[in-house]
Request: fold
Amino acid sequence: MTVIGIGTDLVDLERFRNSLVRTPGLRTRLFTAAEQRYSEQRHDPTERYAVRFAAKEAVLKALGVGLGAAAMTDIEVVRDGDGPPELVLHGGAASLATERGVEAWHVSLTHTDTMAHAMVVAVGGRRR
Reply:
């Protein structure tokens, strides 16, 4: 397997928390229904939302494109029980990944009390 792209992103939790309060519609514009359900299981869902937002931006960076190249809801972070997070791409994001030869994704998510961080690696048979 060849590395197609690497993306990383940091999100300030307090700033993101304020954005979610100030603009409640962000949840539906940025996150799938499943991501919202998963995040809202916490007393303070900000950490889960922020780390997923970081992952979405990291995916776009790994694909070599910017915000707006695909809908944020086309990039989904899923978890199966206590298993590791996985990326599932739909629509425009999936098309971009296919065009670039991406066959699989590796994702790492973490957060502290103040920051959320995501790193993704896109791999495929050959770099295009």
